[in-house]
Design goal:
The complex is a heterodimer of chains A (about 525) and B (about 350). Chain A has helices spanning about 1-20, 35, 45-50, 60-80, 110-115, 140-165, 190-200, 215-220, 280-295, 330-340, 360-390, 390-410, 420-450, 455-485, 490-520, and strands at about 45, 50-60, 90-95, 95-100, 120-130, 135-140, 175, 180-185, 205-210, 230-235, 240-250, 255, 260-265, 275-280, 300-305, 305-310, 320-325, 350-355, 415. Chain A is of the alpha+beta class. In chain A, the strands form six sheets. Chain A has a four-stranded antiparallel sheet. In chain A, β15 (about 300-305) and β16 form a beta hairpin. In chain A, α1 packs antiparallel against α15 and α12 crosses α15 (about 490-520). Chain B is of the alpha+beta class. Chain B is built from twelve helices and four strands; from the N terminus they run ααβαββαβαααααααα. A four-stranded antiparallel sheet of chain B has the order 2-3-1-4. In chain B, β2 and β3 form a beta hairpin. In chain B, α8 (about 210-235) runs antiparallel to α9 (about 240-270). Chain B is globular. Classes of the chains: A alpha+beta (about 525), B alpha+beta (about 350). The interface between A and B is large, with 79 and 75 residues.
Chain lengths: ~525, ~350
Amino acid sequence: MQSLRWRIIVTLLVLVLGLAYMLPSIPGIQGTSLAKLLPGDAINLGLDLKGGIHLTLGVDMDTAMKNNLARLGDDLKASAAEEQVFVLRPRVLGEDKIRVVLLKGEQKDKFKGILKQFDSLSVDATEPGENGKVEYILSLTPQYRKYLTKLTLDQAVKTIRNRIDQFGVAEPDIRKQAGNRIQVQLPGLQDPERAIKIIGRTAHLEFKMVDEGADVETAKKGAVAPGRELTVLLHRKPDGSYTETPIVLKKDAVLTGEYIKDAQVRFDQFNTPYVALNFNTRGGTIFARLTGENVNKRMAIVLDGKVYSAPVIQEKIAGGRASITGSFDKEEATDLAIVLRAGSLPAPIDILEQRTVGPSLGQESIDKGVTSAVIGLALVLVFMGIYYGIGGLVADIVLVLNIMLIMAGLAAFGATLTLPGIAGIILTIGMAVDANVIIFERIREELRRGLTAGAAVTEGYGRATLTILDANVTTIIAAIILYQFGTGPVRGFAVTLTLGILTSMFTAIFVSRIMFDLYTRNRADRAKLNI
Amino acid sequence: MGLQIIKPDTHIDFIGFRKIAFIISAIVILAGIGSLLAKGGPKYGIDFAGGMIVQIKLDKATDVTDLKGAMKELNLPGLTVQTLGLEDDHEYMIRTSSSDISSQAVRDGIDRSLAANLKDRTFEIQRLEMVGPKVGADLRAKALEALFYAVLLIAVYISGRFEQRWTAAGIMAAALAGGIYGIGLTGLDMGWLIISALVLTLGLCWYLKLNYALGAVVALIHDVIITVGIFSILGKEFDLTIIAALLTIVGYSLNDTIIVFDRIRENNIAAKSGTYFGDTINKSVNQTLSRTLMTSITTLLVVFCLFVLGGGVIHDFALALLIGIVVGTYSSVFVASPILLGFGPGSHVGEGEVEAA
């Protein structure tokens, strides 16, 4: 039979490929010389099996919008001033509106021209105010909002990736999700809390001048001058807690963290850690000018709204170096250096979901999964063998082949094996024999009708194939939907289930047929088929 | 020949049992729904409800109340402690309904209070999961959506494939999409949206006389409702893995139903005109009975292994599968097939419709 030879060749080819991809995942094979010859890598294990952290982060888009509006407002004010058009300090209203007051109504046309340059803002309303002032309510255009949302998310992903890279995790997986969400997976991490701290820190660094003239006592009563803010200077005590000293700062930051090129932990003569900053050229120039202009004044270093130190500037500092001193222990300083190096997040982030699995639980899960799979498989093999005789043996052989192909498929496609994935394989073991059962029952029926072995096999396979296809397509539909809507482990389950169905159809319809054809080929037509 | 559980000449009158079967199904379904109503809906795990769980393993058996008492000082809102997996695993699941507390604080708090109050035992925190309320609600909506789309697509596929009525199937899909869009405009809660969509699906199947799809969809909704009901009666929680289990049950139930239906269609085409359709169904169910049982047995064998040996995390998942596979097997024989008789191509119209197909 010509076609039989081809089918055998195809099967052997699949078998060899399957083995090549499956073998690296067998524990004993790794690291041997055989492993080097094989093309594939071992199956990826999911976090629930390997241990590690899974985080879903939500980027605070409202804050990102507000920050951006404030910046746009400042730019607008500055651009207007260049053209001798004066506006009051813009005020942000809510997350997408800003109010700008034009001081001289007669400059309306000129201001209109300036507004044109800001195509991300649209004019909602203009209202005449007192003394010829004009009040503008501006809002972000929908396109710009959309662009900004994407930009913020991209930037957040990039920053988080930078931080994690510096923190040193083997195979981090960071990706954007629908809306304002970011998914972070850190396999095999031992200290989840520290990682979360590093990822979640906004790390918005600002340098602000201390308002020397302001009286702290008056400010505490609520009389804070415009453009000033009352805040506290933190000072770390030996036990790790902080003392707070009230301090009045000028609101506008004179320099921000965006000019930082590098940040490192250093130790002073008392072995106290501090963070040494290195500005880029532009930052260095600004810093030198600032320090030169403000000798003998105090400059506050503000991180995420908290003032960590406010040293007096002794002299002009050239060369682009600065340091944040005082308030940290070594780990804190290291983590601070990491986040400063990696840059600040464009907006604060919240942890919406956190799943941490210890590595020991992962190993235990694998062991239990494998044990139940092996025992389940053995039971099915024995049961099929007893029930269907020769046919059962054929079913057993293709079942083992089937499991091998699922593992090979998982490795070849780089899919991730999760605990529900193992369950999926185990379930497939049970369901995989279904196709064979359908075929065997058909063959039995045809044999009872008096057909010869060969004819019964042909008829049985022919009639059963369509049934099997119909039945499996519906299961695949369910699996695809699981994949579409599921996350993490559920997706893993969907992948193994789909793979299992595909491979079981191949092995049950195609491979087992070869064995039956070989079995019946060389027998007299009336030979009894033991099935 | 190998062994045979079902003799080839078996002639069980399944159709004759249909009234009893419907009553049994109705009782089980009502009991489940009753339990759901009494408990105010399904008991959601943290995946859907939000909150935090901490799984710990102790070196020796500890009473749940002792464990809970040891953590009393932490004042965790809605604190529950339950055992996980098998007796000698000494694994416990600590759950709190709050997701505002930092996981660090919870971790430290548990470490501290257990070390102080259960001095003679060592323990290890194996797993910590926190799901915020927003994510929980999203996951819930997505899970329901998944169940719904699975049912819809499957109904369309069966109608097209089985009755060669792709046009009717297409009309159904379009009507459903429109209907759901309309219902969506009313701003209903996702749960009600899904229920109305399912009712709409069933109604359309019935109206368009897509009987095979109707039978299959009724059977799978039957299976899912019973599994959910039993879970509620047993006080088990619903989480993402249970949704995966339910969708697998959907797949399995259909698989089973379709194989029986396939045979009914085949026998119906071959039947002489004037044959009672119920006889054709009975004949087909009997012919496929051997296969139905064999597959259920092998699948149950392995799922049972998973249930007993799979460990705590997978335990409930395996339980859902066990229930679902038993119910799914039952429903394809006793629920799906008789529905074909009730609404389907009877002897007088049946021939014509199949012929026209």
